Amino acid sequence: MKKEKIVLAYSGGLDTSVMIKWLIQKYNFDVICCIVDVGQKEDFVLLSDRAKQTGAKKVYVIDAKREFVEKYIFNAIKANAVYEGKYLLGTSLARPLIAQKVVQVAKKERAKYLAHGATGKGNDQVRFELAFKYLYPQAKIIVPWREWELKSREEEIEYAKKYNIPITVTKEKPYSTDANLWHISYEGGILEDLNNEPDEKMFIMTISPLNITAAPTEIEIEFFKGVPKKLKIGQKIITDPVKLIDELNKIGGKQGIGRVDIVENRFVGIKSRGVYEAPAATILYFAHRELESLVLDRTVMHYKEHISLDYAELVYNGEWFSPKREALDKFINETQRYVTGKIGLRLYRGNIFVTHRSSPYTLYNLQLASFDMSTKGLVEYNQKDAEGFINLFGLPYKIVSLRNKKNKI
Fold first, then answer.
1. Potential cystine with 232: which of 118, 220, 236, 389 (Cβ 3.0-4.6 Å)?
2. What is the pLDDT of residues 145-167, one digit of tens each?
3. Where do the domains of the chain lie?
4. pTM for the complete prediction?
5. Active-site option among 30, 37, 124, 178
6. Choosing from 15, 30, 37, 178, which is the catalytic residue?
7. Backbone phi, then psi, for 139, in 5-degree steps?
């Protein structure tokens, strides 16, 4: 009898390594692994060999770094999408892209089953499965974490030892990590105790600001319609989008920029702690907001702040392929028509300082802004006009005050 095929979103970590063997034992599937390179800097040859050694029939390795940057990260930058004021959505942005590649492999292989390594308590299960349902509604989704008898990372490690599955996680270092071009996340294990400060040895991308002895780093970022197009560091110029982010991760990490420790609200209703490193993301969000402050008028800028929160929550909740996200992108892209210009930054000991700003579409008018200079010219500002404006604007407050004094309660 011909075996059914299942495509597994494979990272090479503990969970998905164990899942290859478990899916074979439980369902007698031919397991096809899909590894999506979103900038995690892994040895993909090693991971492929590991998957085949564990029982995978076939392994696909797909380079999606440029697509990740241009179709996901740049959209998030234009939206200023930050979840709960801190989380820069590194994992949230990568999951729908990975899911899309898994579906493409499944359709190519004519596989009717899809699987992922997310747990039954986390957000990633929602992100993967909403994407699967949208992109391949005919497929059946198998989620080992919601079915198997293994209840902890420790039990997974024992299972791996029993079946000689090659893994890198140990009981002494049980926390989970997820890396891509946009960030590295750390969750679970010792971090679940909120009294535990993150171990300095844990961090990969960043140096603690307390340990930095290097001089400040001066950079300039040039945007075109909200998208970072050029990074200048001294005489060095980088225009390739993947290399631009990679370089910002390096120089930002050396200055201790981009560390986040947050207790966040998962979509499934559980509060969880996440520790993140995201130097490039932190710098680019900062620079983009500074440029927007020059070129967006007040009402658009303030309204967009509401949209940014909505957009971040939508991405966090796994609704990337929703009609709502597509509609919001149209509004956001309209706001970015004039978000073109240059922002100079100084990076130093975990801080970012603006050194200069410029845009051909700036709304900043020196004559209008100055307290001292004459405002006659292209736009005239008569200070006496403020009197009538304030009288009309303040009229409701005046009426309320008179009523309250007349009718004391």
1. 220
2. 999 999 888 899 999 999 999 88
3. 5-172, 184-358, 366-406
4. 0.92
5. 124
6. 15
7. -75, 155
